[in-house]
User: Fold this.
Amino acid sequence: MDHLDQLEAQSIYIFREAFARLKKIALLWSLGKDSNVMIWLARKAFFGRVPFPALHVDTGKKFPEMYRFRDHYGKEWELDLRVEPCPPIDAVDPTLPPAARSAARKTEGLKMALGKYGFDGLIAGIRRDEEATRAKERVFSPRGLEGNWDVRDQPPEFWDHFNASPPQGAHLRIHPILHWTESDIWAYTKRENIPIIPLYLSQNGKRYRSLGDQDITNPVASTASNIDEILAELEQTKVPERAGRALDHETEDAFERLRVAGYL
Amino acid sequence: MNMLVTPTSPATPNGTTRPQVRIVIVGHVDHGKSTLVGRLLHETGSLPDGKLEMLKAVSARRGMPFEWSFLLDALQTERDQGITIDTTQIRFRTNSRDIVLIDAPGHAEFLRNMITGASQADGAVLIIDALEGVRDQTRRHGYLLHLLGVKQVAVVVNKMDRVDFSAERFKDISDEISAHLNGLGVTPTAVIPISARDGDGVAERTDRISWYNGPTVVEALDQLEPARPLEALALRLPVQAIYKFDDRRIVAGRIESGSLVAGDEIVIMPAGKIARIKTVESWPVTPVAGRQGAGRSVGITLDRELFIERGDIVAHVGTAPRETRRLRARIFWLHDKPLAKGDQLLVRCGPKESRATVVAIEKAVDPGELSSSENKAISRNHVGEIDISLSNPIATDPYTENPRTGRLVIEVSGRIAGGGLVLSVDAGQRAVPVDIVPVESALRPDERSARYRHNGAVVWLTGLPASGKSTLAKALERRLFTNGGSPILLDGDTLRAGLNSDLGFSAADRSENIRRLAEVATHLARNGHIAIVAAVSPAREDRATARRIADTAFREIHVATPAEVCEERDPKGHYKKARSGALASFTGIGNDYERPEAAELAIDTSTRSVAEAADEIEQMLKTSGVLFDELVDLAANI
Assistant:
């Protein structure tokens, strides 16, 4: 088994645990490279079909390429796609800096969707290497009744044994690709021939490394126009993956505040 | 998952795979762990080009002397920035080994981190400061290595430069730590004098330690034996789920050890059902050809429809795991409330979960104090050895035979509260696997209890021969029947005439006799009858087995008639024969009857009439929920 085989087998294991141990789960599809790999892994875990809904919490501000991708592959992959809207910006904590506030709409949209469907588990494609607070995550991460995350009181988790009993009314976040890196994602995308949104490839000397809402995501300088070139670039670069995400740079704790409140 | 310091390819030039050894470096804080790691990375040529020069230049610019531990710090900073990844593992190479170094950091959450890290190690390096000598933490870490079953321990005595490379000082420390480790059953593979800062003893035996002629640290690491690769162990595929998304019925799970291929004959444990693997399913291409090995998440289909559940284990016939309801485990405890005898828990062995009861706490140790005075409970962050009885049979292995299936976690209120290693299983081992499909009764238990006005139960009468068990059992049977119930007498002697006629009176045969009685009685109880067992059942352990089998249905009654009264009665003439030596292995003469300690009821028939005794039993059955007190309640239940 090579490195990618190991990552894949581990993710499949996590998917199957989540499906076996929780009653009502959904997968969060943000249309980006990570969640596309995640859906691919789910199809591997369940032999070609995703036996639970794929939830797109839609801010309405994604790139047109992303919407096209969603509509096309949602059908082709036979997903039970649920597109859920987010509340307007004035419904969101006004003390947050602008980009974080804009992003926080997603947290609210997520809470609304949770209330609507009563999911007890949400599968999310976050990775430890993306960002410092995500590095502290558990694979099965309990969330409070308000969707909040208590960083200081996380249950022990070892030997692939996960805590899967959320308190009544609360839910778990399940992170099947927590142990992957940005390079792993690209190497696997290439190996498995998983479709990608072209915004990740260089045009006019720029490309997106991480895709979010149009108003708070910027491209980074890059000449990588295919996956091999992206992988080569990642070997060299000192620029963090989320460099193009405005909200990460507003205040030092903006992202942590968001995540504690329930953001992904 | 690993931080690759060198881009390693697992293959050697001749195409063979280099053995991989996982080690953990432990020892008292400031005794030089990160300095040694930095040195090792350098000496084994594992650092990226220019890294060392860069750090030296940075140190010089800041006017600081260069420290080897900066290397680790630098790598850690890189990890924080997300350039190189994760977390807890660093790789380097010796002449013949790929070493994976498991970083076990953290003082506050010391135990949790240390155990999680070290539980995956094949070997350990225990570091001791030559000046400070063996400290508490040194002993603690030594103990934890023992706890986790890490047997290969290389000891390094660091900072020898601080003691002028004194051979005497080295010998003192070496003797002290060797005695400590030997006491724990661990023999150090080497004790090495070093100066990690200057490099003495790390990769080279320098002049300053010319008196030492053992291995260097790199040589010692080179001699560590890798764990047997998981693929070389027997097949263990714990079942995560059965999927039926289309016309295939796929048994899904991860191969924890061994390998499988279509066509293999397999056995599903603990039930012992046999089948053949028809296909190995996958996506997007299916079926997949070729052998699938440990680590793979797979799906298999079988050549026949069997009832399989999550938590069952697929194994090969002949090398199947043991089936048990009882096991002994070495655990670490993380919950606020101490773990005590009698506690009800949830145990998880892979995907299998079972309710469990702590039968005994054999040992409880504070790894900080290393005192094992307490053995009533295991406190938070303490360790111990416990006996667990499980309400469902599980299939498992001792961790020495299979590190993947031989471990468990314990849950309290839905949260992992501890974990540990399976030391031994009390196996009700099946001689030959058989193809069994249990058939359930057409009736539900509540249908029967509505008619009989009682729940099913096993009423177990134990006591010396002639203590009055059978008399009492028959009186009780008559009484329950008169009241409309469904009692059934299972007399030990009667069953010995038929079902158990193959058994003699050796300890093993007696245990088996009791086990069968308990199985039959439990079957009756599950079907709503009250099985009244009258059997001497002298061994406490055998009665405990019976209680485990019958679980909550079990009621033990000690017919506690004094021995001399029993012998005087002697209705079958057994005591007389035994006294004359004509009856070997007779319980009653001698001391082989072990009195119950916590029977539900004790009755002395020398001071009670049969009717009074039956009254007492009836009352106990009422208060313990076997007999329904009120007809009205019953009506409400229908």
Summary: The interface with chain B takes residues 1, 5-10, 12-13, 16-17, 19-20, 43-49, 51, 128-132, 135, 155-159, 161, 163-165, 179, 181, 238, 240-241 of chain A (CB under 8 Å).
